């Protein structure tokens, strides 16, 4: 079938909402992963209704046109990157809130609404949707679900999977299915809703999301900032916090490399006086008692701790964490990696990263969501493409994570960038099973082909 065939049919189905000019198409050849496809996609379709998404999928199936679903394009794994012959389905025009039910603590929304936009609309109802990627003001709810996004609050409030009740999903051939349950409980059949969450656009297009909401957290949070002389002590102390039963809302660890980047940017001298910084925040009922207990524990581990409820002082303690990535960005183009290890192996993971850093002679500033053992070793380089030496060092970081009983990705996903290591974690049997599951949902391999599963693999 010639390429013009899908284009003409798409234009007839979505009059005025199919773009094929080179300037528009160029914007869809990259996301925030640093990966850019070698050529322009076929077209970009901008549906506004579920029926339009279904029509697009029917046309795509009949013309064998591959589809790349796209939210806001903030993904860090290359999942939304589109190339020659591919049709982008951009969902950012499907952004309505269809229902907010305070009684049932749920909201029903279209996938293209931004996370931050949704939470602003929920606030007057005394409710919020907990997934909080640092990109929440620029990423979509559909993208958060497709990536099973995490963030700073996960150890206490869970990752996106814990915050989704049900989904409407359009399959590659245009069929519409509803998975999950509007009820709090529901165990009928296999849990296809969980399967869709984190499926990275490879199984279906999420077109409606029923979200589980939380009541707004009352009271002032207590913030603690702790400086350590030894990174290993900081990592071990963070692990001890959760081991002792404390559940802080936020616990963020930054190593000396990260502090050096901040110093370079601010002219400060944090790194000369300490080896690591731990930011902790306790919220809700019992925040003061929890903060007291955590403070005692951190001090016993040798930290110099400041604790506050004053918003200005709290903001000062936060500023270090907020400034971390902008400061690291000054080193060059970034490959922000994302492994997770069991919490009691965090200290070992940091030690192994220092060793890799020394052997490859490359700085690897590493921040960590220490409440859940999710580390972001970050590599900087010049130019657009990740040099082989950086990939070699990153590959060692991935192997290390697996050796410590961890995982290749805590929250950023596999996409294009990590697909060649997927089998290392899953093993041959599960890898094959997962590929066959993809085939059941999408037998023609039209949805995000080449993402997650390496065609060469
Ligand atoms: C500054 C910055 C900070 C970030 N911080 C975090 C963080 O703290 N935690 C975290 O987890 N991530 C983080 N990210 C990564 C990114 O924001 C998340 O992965 C986010 O969930 C992607 O949402 P998006 O709307 O941009 O999706 P996109 O990038 O457009 O798409 C991501 C993937 O989801 C698929 N997809 C998108 N929408 C749908 C849909 N409706 N149906 C089916 N598939 C779909 C796409 O095909 C693609 O594979 C960060 C990114 C940036 C740039």
What can you see in these coordinates?
This protein is α+β, with helices and mostly antiparallel strands and 457 residues long. The protein has three domains: 4-90, Uridine Diphospho-n-acetylenolpyruvylglucosamine Reductase, domain 2, CATH 3.30.43; 97-215, Uridine Diphospho-n-acetylenolpyruvylglucosamine Reductase, domain 3; 222-403, Vanillyl-alcohol Oxidase, Chain A, domain 3, CATH 3.40.462. The chain contains 16 helices and 19 strands. It has helices spanning 4-13, 22-26, 50-63, 115-122, 141-147, 154-157, 192-196, 231-243, 256-266, 270-273, 287-300, 311-322, 324-329, 346-360, 388-403, 422-441; strands spanning 18-19, 43-45, 67-70, 87-90, 97-101, 106-109, 127-128, 164-170, 176-180, 205-212, 214-215, 222-228, 250-255, 276-282, 304-308, 333-336, 339-340, 366-369, 374-381. The longest helix is centred in the C-terminal third of the chain and has 20 residues, at 422-441. The chain starts with a helix and ends in a 16-residue tail after the last helix. Flavin-adenine dinucleotide is lined by residues 31-32, 68-76, 79-80, 91, 111, 133-135, 139-140, 142-144, 146-147, 149-151, 200-201, 205-206, 411-412, 448, 451.
């Amino acid at each position: 079938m010639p390429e013009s065939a899908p284009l003409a049919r798409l234009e007839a189905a979505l009059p005025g909402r199919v773009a094929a000019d080179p300037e528009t198409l160029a914007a869809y050849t990259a996301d925030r992963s640093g990966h850019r496809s070698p050529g322009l996609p076929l077209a970009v379709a901008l549906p506004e209704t579920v029926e339009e998404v279904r029509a697009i999928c029917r046309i795509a199936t009949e013309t064998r046109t591959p589809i790349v679903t796209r939210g806001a394009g903030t993904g860090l794994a290359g999942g939304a990157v589109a190339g020659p012959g591919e049709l982008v389905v951009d969902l950012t025009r499907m952004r309505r809130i269809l229902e907010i039910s305070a009684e049932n603590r749920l909201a029903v929304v279209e996938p293209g609404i931004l996370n931050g936009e949704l939470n602003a609309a929920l606030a007057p109802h005394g409710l919020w949707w907990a997934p909080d990627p640092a990109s929440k003001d620029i990423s979509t709810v559909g993208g958060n679900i497709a990536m099973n996004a995490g963030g700073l609050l996960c150890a206490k409030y869970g990752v996106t999977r814990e915050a989704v009740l049900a989904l409407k999903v359009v399959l590659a051939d245009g069929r519409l299915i509803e998975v999950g349950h509007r009820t709090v409980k529901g165990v009928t059949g296999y849990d296809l809703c969980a399967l869709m969450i984190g499926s990275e656009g490879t199984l279906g297009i999420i077109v409606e999301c029923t979200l589980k909401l939380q009541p707004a957290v009352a009271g002032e949070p207590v913030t603690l900032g702790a400086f350590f002389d030894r990174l290993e002590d900081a990592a071990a102390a963070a692990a001890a916090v959760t081991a002792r039963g404390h559940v802080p809302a936020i616990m963020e660890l930054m190593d000396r490399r990260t502090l050096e980047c901040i110093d370079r940017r601010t002219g400060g001298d944090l790194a000369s006086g300490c080896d690591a910084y731990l930011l902790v925040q306790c919220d809700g009922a019992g925040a003061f008692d929890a903060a007291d207990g955590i403070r005692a524990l951190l001090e016993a581990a040798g930290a110099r701790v400041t604790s506050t409820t004053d918003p200005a002082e709290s903001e000062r303690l936060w500023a270090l964490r907020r400034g971390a990535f902008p400061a690291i960005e000054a080193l060059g183009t970034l490959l922000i990696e994302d492994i997770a290890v069991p919490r009691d192996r965090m200290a070992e993971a940091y030690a192994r990263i220092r060793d890799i850093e020394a052997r490859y002679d490359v700085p690897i500033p590493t921040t960590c969501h220490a409440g859940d053992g999710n580390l972001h070793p970050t590599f900087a380089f010049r130019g657009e493409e990740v040099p082989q030496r950086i990939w070699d060092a990153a590959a060692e970081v991935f192997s290390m994570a697996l050796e410590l009983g961890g995982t290749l990705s805590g929250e950023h996903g596999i996409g294009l960038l990590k697909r060649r290591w997927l089998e290392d974690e899953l093993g041959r049997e599960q890898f094959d099973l997962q590929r066959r599951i993809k085939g059941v949902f999408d037998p023609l391999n039209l949805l995000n082909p080449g993402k997650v599963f390496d065609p060469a693999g």
